[in-house]
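## retry 2 of 3
previous attempt timed out at serialization; input unchanged, resubmitting
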Amino acid sequence: MSYLVEEIEEYLETIFPECKKSLRVVFLFLTNPDETYTKYMIQKLTAVDKIGKVLERLLKLGVIEKVDEDPTIYRLNLKNEYASFLYKFFIEKKG
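## retry succeeded, writing output
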């Protein structure tokens, strides 16, 4: 992850402290759009405990998608217009 992207993430976490968990998870996926992650991997990489509600919300919004069920594996859903916009805005232009 580039320094500027890390700086943007920290800035947004400061502006929206109640969204810190969600922002960490979203930025993990945005900075690694081709990677897939299990729930356990996401928890370890983002240092976010009790991640189930965050993943449920992001799935419902279509920002991430399930790739496999056993174990459940997630990835960024670039077919979703909002996820695609976030990726282009934060990563493509800044990374």
